[in-house]
Write a structure and sequence with these properties.
The protein has 4 helices and 4 strands. It has 85 residues and is of the alpha+beta class. It has one domain: Glutaredoxin (3-Layer(aba) Sandwich), CATH 3.40.30.10. This is Glutaredoxin.
Amino acid sequence: MIKITMYSTRVCPYCNMAERLLVSKGVEITEKILVDVDPVRREEMMTRTGRRTVPQIFIGETHVGGFDDLSALDKAGKLDPLLGK
């Protein structure tokens, strides 16, 4: 099973949409990191991605980006191969 990590907040609608898209693909988020609860993890996210916004999604060690990036990968037919489908 491939590891999916998502940096998120408790009130982010784009995070919810990203999670729904992944679930519709038959995968679960392995690690959801709530950066609004743990500011140290927000710093970690910004260091890892160079971005400040959530969600920030990793499939394995590949940084996918946010919801728009995830959705674009899906529309281009490139998400399923990343998920091992």
